[in-house]
From TrEMBL:
Belongs to the protein kinase superfamily. RIO-type Ser/Thr kinase family. Its main location: cytoplasm. Its cofactor is Mg(2+). Pfam families: RIO1 (PF01163). One of its GO terms (biological process) is ribosome biogenesis. Residues 1-103 form the RIO kinase domain. Its EC number is 2.7.11.1. It catalyses: L-threonyl-[protein] + ATP = O-phospho-L-threonyl-[protein] + ADP + H(+); L-seryl-[protein] + ATP = O-phospho-L-seryl-[protein] + ADP + H(+). It comes from Cirrhinus mrigala. This is Serine/threonine-protein kinase RIO3.
Length: 103
């Protein structure tokens, strides 16, 4: 949990309070780029969240992410959507890319 800053921890608690997640059970893996947590799903706006989930939290800052744009714009799945985006939108694209890598 050391890698989770207060703002990220607050977002995780908000996911539990909103019912998206029933609980966050703890860290199951840490690496140089991210921390992975096990969670139990809840429901959100009539959508059922899977019973077991993982949360992948990246250990990075906005400034560090600016250097990672090359990994997104060189990926054929995202190159048409990538242009001079602001850093937060690049982070969103990066997370989407990571999700696609898992499926």
């Amino acid at each position: 949990e050391q890698a989770v800053d207060p703002r990220t921890r607050l977002l995780m608690y908000k996911m539990v309070n909103a019912g998206i997640l029933e609980s966050i059970n703890g860290c199951i893996s840490t690496g140089k780029e991210s921390v992975v947590f096990h969670a139990n799903g809840g429901s959100f706006e009539e959508k059922i969240v899977p019973e077991e989930c993982v949360l992948k939290v990246f250990k990075t800052t906005l400034n560090e992410f600016k250097n990672r744009d090359k990994y997104i714009k060189d990926d054929y799945r995202f190159k048409d959507r990538f242009s001079k985006l602001n850093p937060r939108k690049i982070i969103r694209l990066w997370a989407e890319k990571e999700m696609h890598n898992l499926t």
